[in-house]
Amino acid sequence: MAAGLVGVVLWQNSYDMDEQRVSIRHGGHTLNGVLATPKDGRKRHGLVVYIHGDGPVGATHDDGYKPMWEANAKAGYASLSWDKPGVAGAPGNWLDQSMDDRANEAAAAITWARARPDIDGDRIGLWGASQAGWILPKVAAKTPVRFVIAVSSAINWLQQGRYNLLAKLRADGASTARTMAEIAKSDTTRRLLERHANFEEYVRAMGADADGMTADRWGFISKNYTADATQDLRALRGVPVLLTLAGHDINVDTADTERIYRKVLDAGGALTVKHYPDATHSLLKQSIEQSDLKTTLTALFSPRSLFAVGFLDGQRQFLSAEAAMPHHETPARSAMARGARSRVPPRAL
User: Fold this and answer.
1) Which residues contact 299 (CB under 8 A, 6 or more apart)?
2) Of 142, 145, 126, nearest to 52 (Cα)?
3) What are the b/e assignments for 103-135, b being 16+ CB within 10 Å?
4) Do the beta carbons of residue 148 and residue 240 sit within 8 Å?
5) Three-state SS across 85-136?
6) Minimal CA–CA distance to 32: which of 60, 53, 13?
7) What are the pLDDT digits (tens) for 196-226?
8) Which of 123, 276, 303, 349 has its CA 20 to 30 A from that of 293?
9) For the chain, where are the alpha helices, taking DSSP H only?
């Protein structure tokens, strides 16, 4: 029985694609990455470049990306991802990065990919989740992209933070007194950020209520708390965008995200919005994510089933449609031809 269970785990965690470790030079250091390619016998493939959300994320996101990479491969696309600086032995510290730093990193990875004989440089697009919402349009302002898949993407750092705070308090059934105290604490943090307070000032202001904040994390927030994607999104006009939103997202105000995306991008007719009512912020099924045991067992025995119904197929169908469209007919191609005039330079943070 034990041998049978091991066999099931190995089979379910084997994916129909080839994977290779790659090294990408950027800014005097190396990005440690993984390139996953379809097993379809073709010499060249389009590419989906993955932009992580917040946190110390490795190239495969603890293998959580692999079901998506397999879906991409079924559509004829390779996938590229890399360890954040400081993760899995990679040089640097991801907490030292601004959103512009992360965009520069992704642009360098695209330049690297375009130089490879097995990648079709005209069919390179972006996939990004959560915090990547601030990075995706910045990348598109630096280098032409064929498409963008934005998953649970954020718009405004401070608004997202307040939404998340209130959503968690509601989920916890917090009292009015506790809610008011947490809001007051959040307001204190914002005032400290506005006057560029250092970490020691933050600790003094919070006392024993620092919630595990570290000096590196405070530095990261200080660099990025003014992030807002609204103006940067104009760089995606004319580029096919798939916006994927979850029905149980307590991290990002999905209604606000959809409103801004439609306001900025809908006029070009290249925006597709997909809602997954049973999904959480990470696009996992809520019924699974709310149980650590269910999450662990599903990841072992049926990892593709972790995701909301239709999520993997939705990405595959979007990419298949892109792959079937001749280059000269795509909105992305038109945007590429317009060049710098259609691009909005990334705003300084």
Assistant:
1) 63, 64, 306
2) 126
3) bbbbbbbbebbeebeebbbebbbbbbbbbbbbb
4) yes
5) CCCCCCCCCHHHCCHHHHHHHHHHHHHHHHCCCCEEEEEEEEEEEHHHHHCH
6) 60
7) 999 999 999 998 777 789 999 999 999 999 9
8) 276
9) 2-12, 66-74, 99-114, 136-142, 157-171, 176-194, 199-206, 215-224, 254-265, 286-289, 292-301, 311-324, 331-338
Q: Residue 21, Cα to own-chain centre: how many angstroms?
A: 21
d(CA 344, CA 207): 42
Rounded Cα distance, 311 and 251, in Å: 19
Report the C-alpha gap between 292 and 126 in whole angstroms.
Answer: 30
**pLDDT tens-digit profile, the chain (349 residues):** 566 646 645 546 779 899 999 999 988 889 999 999 999 989 999 999 999 999 999 999 999 999 999 999 999 999 999 999 999 999 999 999 999 999 999 999 999 999 999 999 999 999 999 999 999 999 999 999 999 999 999 999 999 999 999 999 999 999 999 999 999 999 999 999 999 999 999 999 998 777 789 999 999 999 999 999 999 999 999 999 999 999 999 999 999 999 999 999 987 779 999 999 999 999 999 999 999 999 999 988 889 999 999 999 999 999 999 887 775 444 444 433 333 333 333 322 2
Closest to 24 (Cα-Cα) out of 89, 81, 109, 111: 109
Please report where in the chains the tokens 């009292």 appear, as a residue: 175
The distance in angstroms from the start CA to the end CA of the chain is: 56
Q: How far apart are CA 107 and CA 133, in angstroms?
A: 15
**What structural domains does the chain harbor?**
2-156+227-342 (3.40.50.1820), 159-224 (no CATH)
CA angle at residue 173 from 169 to 175, to 5 degrees?
85
